[in-house]
Design goal:
The longest helix is centred in the N-terminal third of the chain and has 25 residues, at 14-38. This protein has seven helices and three strands. The mean pLDDT is 91. The protein has 154 residues and is mainly α.
Amino acid sequence: MTEHGDPGKGVIDADFALWRFLDHTRYMIFRQRERELSGLGVTPEQAHVLDILRASRGITTINEIVRMTQLRHHSISTLIDRMSKQGLVTKVRDKQDKRAFQIVLTDKGSELLSRIPVESVKKAFACLSDEEKGQLRSCLEQLLTHAYDLSIEQ
């Protein structure tokens, strides 16, 4: 299929082969993103949290980050603690629920966010036309919605 091989090759089930191919594609794009961000000393996961904070006008909760990333609560808590030690975010106790914290983007985090490049992502999708990107988005939205529905059933 490609010069780099088809990760689904040799797999009998077509759906499983498609999943492997999708996962391999995601991994290859992720690796490029990782390399791009390493020069700033930030991981893709940290960049994702900073982007969530940007979309949330600089303040959100750990639970909201968990919902947006679908990572486990303890993984996000550990990530936030690390980002807090780096001075990228602060944890502020919620006034209504004393057990909860608001996660707040700091000036340092905001400055870093403004320097985070997206060239690796642009390059990865450059091989697709706008129409193909729209079709891919539509298919992925349908697949994601279905995957969420399946996770609720369990």
